[in-house]
Every structure is written in structure tokens, then in C-alpha cells.
Specification:
The chain is an alpha/beta fold and 864 residues long. It is 65% helix and 11% strand. The chain has 37 helices and 17 strands. The chain has an 8-stranded mixed β-barrel with strand order 8-9-11-12-13-14-15-16. Strands 2-3-1-6-7 form a 5-stranded mixed beta sheet, with helices on both faces. A hairpin with a 5-residue loop joins strand 8 and strand 9. The longest helix is centred in the middle third of the chain and has 45 residues. Pfam families: EAL, GGDEF, TPR_12. It comes from Deinococcus soli. This is Diguanylate cyclase (GGDEF)-like protein. Keywords: TPR repeat.
């Protein structure tokens, strides 16, 4: 494999334009030149960064490409050069697309398209539409993808750019290959090759050759595909495209294996694997390991094949690549069958079928069932083989029916596109209107999806990142800083006397103040600083690269945002902030620790009326009280200091009580009633939560057995749920109390289920078999994935009180709660609203068909 020299030498410093010339044929040389110009403060800094990023992308170094392009985009934000700005957005979109981030790619490319159309940049518009099409196709909007490609092709024909036309035709060929229209796909690929200059290496030509090779492999003609793969390999080598070269090497190994040339196939598989491991090409590593295993199978070396397939399976699991997992499991089952290990083979067939069923991909399920039936027949298990074949036959019928429907839709779609193109020859404007009308419905769905994603990540009032996005950004920033031994400062900002403003001027004025503070902070702080809203009047900051010496400057910038008074509803208001900082790694290395310590520093600044405060060890609460509390907790259960309080749940429609939730309390003989927030974490850390949780379950069941027809809900800890005897503990509690299983509801959190989804699903099915109800507590604060949770046998989602708090005020939470209720009902789940404290909140939940409510409005926790 041809690798670029790490010591590329230049003579006199060449101008940046030389790098542009070299970009197509020598991307490594272009990158080296561009990096020498990418110095802050020098002329052409942004252009050099963008060029270095594009060269890194062509070399397959996506991480470096994204870093350089993002920095360039920041420099282009002034709007003085819309062409460069659009080209950089286009490059960012391509990188994100190849990394599998289709949502991010669509956002970047649609911004680039808006710039191109607004400034009438026709060439850029053609490039962007060509790049957008694969993104739309991957997200299921094939109609929009075809529309974008045909518009791109029309623009590029008008510009008389044959190389650009070939690129669009290549994408059209790849799309029709996925649709199963191989004849049309081959026609587009060959037409693209005829448009290209055959005299030298060309990236589009290489991709066309690769796509033609793939097409012939799908048609079962490896002898026709091999020369195209070899031509593509030569081109990628000449271009210095390491990613493309490694991919073609792996594809050639698979092709040569099918052609019976095992030695050559082994050589190419080993080359592909070496390149994938050297350059971190994760998907290619999985492909190369699979190809290597297939070669060993042909060579009769079953142990070596087993090792390769096991490594491929591990890589596929790491990348959550469902297709690769299924293929690796089938390959392993075949090897174990040949080695006389039918028990292992059967287990791998079962796992492959489970993965295929969870993915919902019927062709994969059919392939596994057919292989399993053949295996059963070889083992003499004819009844099992017949059962699997019967299931496979039914599934095959469904697949054929769906294929026929899909082909019919494709024919109809193609007819509409052809008709639109014919009309375009007469009236281009009429064709554009028809195409736009065709995509309107899909565009509305896409827009609605993006709006919901925005609501989930950004604060509706200020437009700042919310607590979820802030935590994600902080996690990434800390990881980046740790890799270079850098520092990160986290700030917590609180507005002094904000409650007085709300009480005197009203909540509308308070909201106006929060929005103004957010705008001023974003204006005075550098773009590299993340400003987020945690909730209420609390704002958060991430300052990358800031150590102790930089905090005074950051604090001065923050304070400057409050120098001028605010005018709210005609009233002049002076607002003062309290600001606290913590620095990683000095004070903590993880997000929760940093936020907690920055919060302690903020409270010191508020208490002592300081401009800002930095965390120091003296602010940390004394550990002795925690140790004393933990020691006392060890004997609390034996001394009968623990007790249960019960908070009622009411049917929303008529306020009839339907259940009570058991809540643990600790009545200490000296300290009085201790908050669960203080002792539950101690019980979790020490392991006492298992014994305490068992006692809670037994007591709650015993108490509920005395109630007439009312359920009891019991919270289960992660440690309890993960224990192998948990099911037996529940059965014992029911048997000893005499409580009917249907009157017991177990409350879990999303994170508990996601730690080991398969094991959790199996345990929940066992609980459901007893008749016990299952609820997800605090829904919305964890994974919040209804699509993923539908695999679990659940009854109820309890919406966290943080979302209920502001639902009556047309807030961001209103849309989130409404969406959760509608989607939960569509999945057959009930919904409980937690933390209902006002009549307005209850009325909102009633009007939106929330099934039940819980909160201080209707009932506080109390002992029985």
C-alpha cells in the first residue's frame, strides 16, 4: 500500500494556489502546503484551513478534516465571502455524511444550499445538491434524493462541466443500485466514465469503477467486477486516498475468494487489515477481517477462520453494525459446525436471529432462518429444520410482496421524474414547481423532526444549549483536553435577586431579562466559550484551555455584560451576577464533579458579594458528617429507624386515587427525619441498598395487601435489579404478603435498562409473566428513546417533574410533554405526570389525555 512520506520536503514556499492545483492529484502535498499558511493572523488563514481540511478529507483523515474545517467556518462567519463560506459548509457536510452523522450533514449542507441560492452561486448549488442526495437517501427520503440529483445534473449540464456531471451520474447509479434497478444503475455509471478524462487518475472515475465492481458482485458476476475493482485501486493509490485504497483492497479480497484464487485473496485481506488498523478505518477493519476469515475457510484452516470471524464480530459489536454482526455470527456458526461444535453453532445461529429480529430487517432474518434450517437438517433435527423452513417461506412471501410494492412505487416515482424532465425541456419553471410539490410532504416531516431535535437540545426561551447539550459538550471538551494534558474551566452564573424581579415586574419581565442576559453573554464572550442555560436564572460556561490565570479575564468579560442596566417594561433594572469557577483537572476530571465544585464557588461569591470565586478545598463539605451518617445507616434497619411514606397517584380525568408510591424515609433519633437525597447515595455506594430495598419491597407489599383495590408502586435500585436473585425476592414478597401481583408496580429508570438491554428485557418478561406492572420513572432525563424502549414490556412512563413544572406556560417543555404523551399512547403505554403542584398543570395534563398525575396539589407523602 502506497503511503505518503512523513518528511515531504518543499523548496521555496509555494503560494497557496499551488495547493489548490495539487488537491486533486496529490492531496498530501496540498495539505502540507496549506498547513504552512494556516497561521492565525496571517493573510489567507481561513482559506488555508479550509484547504487543509478538504485535503485531509480526501486522505481519509476525517477527524483532522472536521477540526480544520470547523475552525475555517468560524473565521468565515463574518459573511464577507459567501462562496468560501458555502464551500466550507459543503466540505463539513461531506465529512459528517461519511462519518454517519446524517442529521449534522443535512444541517450543514442545507445551510450551504441556502447560501448558494441566495447569492446565485450556481456551481456551488450543483455541488451541494449532489452531496445532499446521499444524505436524504440514507434517511429514507429517496424521492428528495432523486430530485436533488436531477437538479444537480441540470445545473452541471448548463455549466458544461463534464467532470461534475459524471459525479452526479455516479451518485444516480449508486442510488438505483440500492433500489434494485441494476440496468439503469449500470447505464449511469458507464455514462459517467465516458465523460471523464482517461489520461490520469480521477477520484470520480475511481468511485465509478468501485460502484461498477459492486454492481457486478451483486449480480453474481465476480469475474466482471474484478477488473473494475483493480482499476479503482490503482486510481486511489495514485491519488493518495488511503481510505479508498483500503476499501478496494478489502473488496478485491472478497472477489478473489469467490473466484477461487485463495492465495491472492489472502494477500489482499492482510493488506486491507493492516491499513485499517494503522489508520483507524473501523468499518474497513470489520470488512477485512470477514474477508480474511472467508479465505481461511476456503484454505481449510478452520481455527484461523474462527479467530478472524470472532475479531470481526467484536469490531461489529463495538460499531453497532447490525449487518456485520449477523454475517460474522453466521460465518462463526459455519466454522463451529465444521469443527464438530454444534452447540456453539446453534447458539450463534440463535444470536444471529435475535439480532436480525431486533433490527427489523426481514432479508437478514430470512438468510439466518435458511442457514439455520440447513444446519438443523445436517444435525438430523428434521422437525426443527421444517419449522425454520416454514417460517422462512412465510417471511420470503412477505419480502417478495414488499419488494413488489416497492418496485411499483419506484416505477411510479421514476415515471413522475421522467415526466418532470420532459416538461423541463418546455418550461423549466413548471418542472421546478412540480418537483418541489413532490417533496413538500417529506420536507415537512424532516422539518418537524429537526424542530423536535432542537427542542430537546436547546432552551426555548434563550436559544442557548440546554442541560443535555451542555453535558455532551462538556464531556467532549474534557476528553479533548485530557488527550493533550490541557485545562478546561467550568463556570456557574446565578442572577442575584432574580426572584424580586419576577415578583414585582412579573414572569414576562423575568423571561425578557433572561433572554437579554443570554444575548449579552454571547456577545462579550469569545465564540470558543459555550454559554448554556441550566434552568431558572442559572447559566453555565465551558471555557476550553482556560487555567487559573485566565479566569480573571473571563470573569471581567462576564461582568462587563452587566455594566449597563436592563430596561424591562419601561423599568430600569440593575442586575448583578454571582459567578463561580472550577478547573479541570485540578478540581475534578468528570462533568458532575466540576459542576458541583463550580456551584460551591458560586455560592461563596454570592455569600461574600465577590465578583467571582474559584473553588478551593475549604469549600468542600467536611467528610466526617458523611462518614458518621454512613456508619449510622449500617444499623438503621436493625434499629427500625427506616419507615415508608406513601404518596397517592390519581386518575387525571376524575381525580380518583388508583395507586400509592412507597417512599423511603429515615427517622434518626438525634438528627430527625433525614432526606433520601442524603442517605440513598450512601446506601448505593456501600451496598446497603440491596438489604434496604428488599425490606422496602416486603413492607410495601404487606401494607398494600390491606388496601381495597389500590396498587402500590415501589422504586427499585440499579444494584437490586442487577442481582440474579431479584425475581425470587419479588416472588417471595408477594407470597409472604398475599398481595395480588397485578397490584404491584415496579418503577425503574431508563439508565438501568440500557446497561444490559438483553438481560433487562428477559427479566422484565419474567416479571410481566407473574402479572406485575412495570413503569419507567423520571422519563426524559435519561436516554428518552421511545423507539428503543418499545422492545421492553412496559406499562407506564412517568414524565419527570422538571418537564411538568412549566408546561402551563407555553414553554419548550410543553412540546416535549405533549410529544411524549402522544408517542407513548401510540405504543400502548400509559403516562403519569409527576410533580403536579398547580391547577393549571393538572388542567393541561387532563386536556392532553395524560392518564394519571402525582404531586403536592393532590396529595403529599405521608405514613400509613
Amino acid at each position: 500500500m502506497h503511503l505518503p512520506s512523513p518528511h515531504f520536503q518543499f523548496g521555496p514556499l509555494p503560494p497557496l494556489e499551488d495547493a489548490r492545483v495539487l488537491l486533486g492529484s496529490q492531496p498530501q502535498a496540498a495539505r502540507d502546503i496549506a498547513r504552512r499558511f494556516a497561521l492565525p493572523g496571517t493573510p489567507g488563514f481561513a482559506q488555508a484551513l479550509a484547504l487543509a481540511g478538504e485535503a485531509a478529507y480526501r486522505l481519509g483523515d476525517h477527524a483532522a478534516a472536521l477540526t480544520d474545517l470547523t475552525r475555517a467556518m468560524t473565521a468565515f462567519q463574518d459573511g464577507s465571502d459567501p462562496l468560501r463560506q458555502g464551500q466550507t459548509l459543503l466540505s463539513i457536510g461531506r465529512v459528517l455524511r461519511d462519518r454517519g452523522d446524517h442529521s449534522g450533514a443535512a444541517s450543514a449542507l442545507e445551510q450551504a444550499l441556502a447560501l448558494a441560492t441566495r447569492h446565485h452561486l450556481r456551481r456551488l448549488e450543483g455541488d451541494v445538491r449532489n452531496a445532499l442526495a446521499p444524505v436524504y437517501h440514507q434517511t429514507g427520503s429517496t424521492g428528495r434524493a432523486l430530485k436533488e440529483l436531477h437538479l444537480s445534473l441540470d445545473i452541471r449540464r448548463d455549466l458544461a462541466d463534464p467532470a461534475a456531471q459524471a459525479s452526479t451520474m455516479n451518485n444516480l447509479g449508486a442510488l438505483y443500485t440500492d433500489l434494485g434497478d441494476y440496468a439503469r444503475a449500470l447505464d449511469y455509471h458507464l455514462s459517467a466514465l465516458r465523460l471523464l478524462d482517461p489520461s490520469g487518475p480521477d477520484r470520480t472515475a475511481a468511485r465509478c469503477r468501485a460502484n461498477v465492481g459492486r454492481l457486478y458482485m451483486l449480480l453474481g458476476q465476480p469475474q466482471a467486477g474484478e477488473p473494475h475493482y483493480r482499476e479503482a485501486l490503482k486510481a486511489f493509490q495514485a491519488l493518495g486516498d488511503l481510505h479508498g485504497e483500503a476499501m478496494m483492497t478489502a473488496n478485491l479480497s472478497e472477489t478473489l475468494t469467490r473466484l477461487g484464487d485463495a492465495p491472492a485473496a489472502l494477500h489482499f485481506a492482510q493488506r486491507a487489515l493492516a491499513a485499517a488498523e494503522q489508520f483507524g478505518f473501523v468499518q474497513i477493519r470489520t470488512l477485512a477481517l470477514t474477508a480474511l476469515g472467508e479465505v481461511h475457510v476456503v484454505l481449510g484452516d478452520a481455527p484461523a477462520a474462527q479467530v478472524a470471524f470472532e475479531q470481526a464480530l467484536g469490531a461489529a459489536r463495538t460499531e453497532h453494525d447490525t449487518d456485520a454482526q449477523i454475517q460474522a455470527l453466521l460465518d462463526l456458526a459455519g466454522v463451529h459446525g465444521s469443527l464438530g461444535r454444534p452447540d456453539l453453532a446453534a447458539a450463534e445461529y440463535d444470536e444471529a436471529l435475535t439480532v436480525a429480529l431486533c433490527s427489523g430487517r426481514k432479508p437478514a432474518q430470512l438468510r439466518v432462518l435458511e442457514r439455520r434450517a440447513a444446519f438443523d437438517a445436517q444435525q438430523g433435527q428434521h422437525a426443527a429444520a421444517y419449522a425454520h423452513l416454514t417460517t422462512a417461506r412465510e417471511l420470503d412471501g412477505q419480502i417478495r410482496s414488499e419488494q413488489n410494492e416497492r418496485q411499483l412505487r419506484n416505477v411510479e416515482l421514476q415515471y413522475e421524474l421522467d415526466l418532470a424532465r420532459q416538461k423541463a425541456e418546455v418550461d423549466r419553471a413548471l418542472k421546478d414547481a412540480a418537483l418541489i410539490a413532490q417533496a413538500d410532504a417529506e420536507a415537512q416531516v424532516q422539518d418537524r423532526t429537526r424542530e423536535l431535535e432542537r427542542l430537546a437540545l436547546y432552551d426555548a426561551l434563550t436559544g442557548l444549549p440546554n442541560r443535555v447539550l451542555f453535558r455532551d459538550r462538556l464531556t467532549v471538551t474534557l476528553a479533548q483536553a485530557a488527550s493533550i494534558s490541557g485545562q478546561v474551566a467550568v463556570g456557574v452564573l446565578d442572577l442575584d435577586r432574580f426572584k424580586n424581579i419576577n415578583d414585582t415586574l412579573g414572569h414576562t419581565a423575568g423571561d425578557e431579562l433572561l433572554a437579554s442576559v443570554a444575548a449579552r453573554l454571547c456577545e462579550v464572550l469569545p465564540a470558543s466559550t459555550t454559554v448554556a442555560r441550566m434552568g431558572g436564572d442559572e447559566f453555565l460556561l465551558i471555557v476550553p484551555g482556560a487555567g487559573h490565570a485566565d479566569l480573571e479575564q473571563t470573569a471581567w468579560l462576564v461582568t462587563s455584560a452587566f455594566t449597563a442596566p436592563f430596561v424591562l417594561h419601561g423599568q430600569t433594572v440593575v442586575v448583578r451576577p454571582s459567578l463561580g469557577f472550577a478547573v479541570s483537572p485540578d478540581h475534578a476530571c468528570e462533568p458532575d464533579g466540576l459542576l458541583r465544585r463550580a456551584d460551591l464557588a458560586m455560592y461563596e461569591a454570592k455569600r461574600d458579594r465577590l465578583e467571582f470565586a474559584v473553588f478551593r478545598d475549604a469549600l468542600e463539605p467536611a467528610p466526617s458528617s458523611t462518614l458518621t451518617l454512613e456508619a449510622a445507616l449500617h444499623g438503621a434497619l436493625a434499629r427500625q429507624e427506616l419507615e415508608l411514606h406513601y404518596q397517592p397517584l390519581f386518575r387525571t380525568s376524575d381525580r380518583v386515587m388508583i395507586a400509592k408510591e412507597a417512599l423511603l424515609r429515615w427517622r434518626h433519633p438525634e438528627l430527625g427525619l433525614i432526606s433520601p437525597a442524603q442517605f440513598i447515595p450512601l446506601a448505593e455506594e456501600s451496598g446497603l441498598i440491596v438489604a434496604i430495598g428488599t425490606w422496602v419491597l416486603q413492607q410495601a407489599c404487606r401494607q398494600a395487601a390491606t388496601w381495597p383495590g389500590v396498587r402500590v408502586a415501589v422504586n427499585i435500585s440499579a444494584r437490586q435489579f442487577s442481582r440474579p436473585d431479584f425475581l425470587a425476592v419479588v416472588e417471595r414478597a408477594l407470597a409472604c404478603s398475599g398481595l395480588e401481583p397485578a397490584r404491584l408496580e415496579i418503577e425503574l429508570t431508563e439508565s438501568m435498562l440500557m446497561r444490559s438491554p438483553d438481560a433487562a428485557a428477559e427479566l422484565l418478561r419474567s416479571l410481566k409473566a407473574l402479572g406485575i406492572r412495570i413503569a419507567i420513572d423520571d422519563f426524559g432525563t435519561g436516554y428518552s428513546s421511545l423507539a428503543y424502549l418499545k422492545r421492553f414490556p412496559l406499562d407506564t412512563l412517568k414524565v419527570d417533574q422538571s418537564f411538568v413544572r412549566d408546561i402551563a406556560q407555553a414553554s419548550q417543555d410543553t412540546a416535549i410533554v405533549t410529544t411524549i404523551i402522544h408517542m407513548a399512547h401510540a405504543l400502548g403505554l400509559e403516562v403519569t405526570g409527576e410533580g403536579v403542584e398547580t391547577e393549571e398543570q393538572w388542567a393541561f395534563l387532563r386536556d392532553h389525555a395524560c392518564d394519571s398525575v402525582q404531586g403536592y396539589l393532590l396529595g403529599r407523602p405521608a405514613p400509613e
